[in-house]
Design goal:
CATH superfamily of the largest domain: Creatinase/methionine aminopeptidase superfamily
Number of helices: 10
Structural class: alpha+beta
Helix content: 25-40%
Number of strands: 18
CATH architecture of the largest domain: Alpha-Beta Complex
Strand order of the largest sheet: 4-3-2-1-5-6
CATH class of the largest domain: Alpha Beta
Oligomer: single chain
Length: 367
């Protein structure tokens, strides 16, 4: 049952709290609240303790909470009572002696308000405890991610079938979102990137009123936000005009780098070593300085979460982790190539969850 799933997560969190000598944790990151309870709203805090878990919310969510979190203790604050004041009241009533709080999401004003209101309660700044739990996905989370991948790929199939030179980057981005919604997504994981020619040299380019036909290739970075809040993230380059030898060369280097990175993904391998495997291919081809970001990141309820595949992260991969593998080469004035897939770490290796074609001859569109 779903309730058992969330209760298990809170039990795991309590074990981490005991190691930090805290009897309770105030969860202020809304995504972490969702992860621990199933409540999909916002503007709500959660106190997780040994004896009781209490969700602190407001009247807008009374019915929603009863539907999404049956059996969970809830404090619905009056309209005139602020969230921090309500949290302090709940903590006092529960006679909490020491309270950890998420120092990476609690604001200074909120922390000061709690300190002022809870004179007899020790406040312990903690960070990353729930995020550590979120690193490895359970089977239902993996299923939710698979569905978000399916929605994204179905939308992209429509894009490829309907793409025309007279469309603008912005129009294509909007059409892609519409298509993904048609396949069940509640929206996009992030504003889609559609970047033509030289504009694709910006890793986080913003779509413009520029025609697809203004260059011979276009980069598309997109993802679907599924019904349960889990998100996918993919990138493909489409050749829409005359094929240059430069495009074919750069694309080939990036694809080989991505394949080298994916091949390295398995339990026990450090994140930095996965990054190094892909980066070496690009460096050996002479484009090392043109790959200016980490190889990838974790996926889940957030589009960017742990673990991070970069040169600084020594964390070892574990079964259940889901990461992007997305090397790129960016040449100002010419353009950029990035290829991205979502990859699940399995017990004995990995599984690529995405299946959108990426061989060079498969990305050429017949306009």
């Amino acid at each position: 049952m779903a309730g058992d799933r969330y209760a298990k997560r809170r039990k795991q969190l309590m074990r981490k709290l005991r190691a930090k000598h805290a009897e309770s944790l105030l969860v202020t990151n809304f995504t972490n609240v969702t992860y621990l309870t199933g409540f999909s709203g916002d503007d709500s805090f959660l106190i997780v303790g040994r004896d009781k878990t209490i969700l602190i919310s407001d009247g807008r969510y009374t019915t929603q909470i009863s539907e999404e979190c049956p059996g969970l203790d809830v404090y619905i604050r009056p309209q005139k009572e602020g969230l921090v004041a309500a949290t302090a009241k709940v903590a006092r009533r529960a006679k909490i002696r020491n309270l950890g709080f998420e120092s990476n999401s609690t604001t200074v004003d909120q922390a000061e308000g709690l300190l002022s209101a809870l004179k007899s309660t020790e406040l312990i700044p903690l960070s990353g405890l729930v995020e550590e739990l979120r690193l490895c996905k359970d089977p239902q989370e993996v299923a939710d991610l698979r569905e978000a991948v399916r929605q994204a790929e179905k939308g992209f199939e429509v894009l490829k079938a309907t793409l025309r030179g007279e469309q603008t980057e912005l129009q294509v981005a909007h059409d892609l979102e519409h298509s993904m919604r048609g396949f069940g997504a509640v929206g996009t994981s992030f504003p889609p990137i559609v970047a033509v020619g030289p504009h694709s040299a910006l890793p986080h380019a913003t779509p413009r009123h520029v025609l697809i036909s203004d260059a011979s290739f276009v980069l598309v970075d997109w993802g679907a936000n599924g019904q349960t809040g889990y998100k996918s993230d993919l990138t493909r380059v489409l050749a829409t005009g005359k094929i240059s030898s430069k495009l074919e060369k750069v694309y080939g280097v990036v694809l080989n780098a991505q394949l080298a990175g994916i091949q390295k993904v398995r339990p026990g391998v450090r994140c930095c070593d996965v990054d190094a495997a892909a980066r070496k291919v690009i460096e050996d081809a002479g484009f090392g300085k043109k790959f200016n970001h980490g190889l990838g990141h974790g996926l889940g309820l957030d589009i960017h979460e742990g673990p991070r595949l970069n040169s600084a992260t020594e964390l070892e991969l574990r079964p259940g982790m889901v990461v992007t593998v997305e090397p790129g080469i960016y040449l100002p004035g010419w353009g950029g190539v990035r290829i991205e897939d979502d990859v699940l770490v399995t017990k004995d290796g990995c599984e690529v969850l995405t299946s959108s074609p990426k061989a060079f001859d498969e990305i050429i569109l017949d306009f």
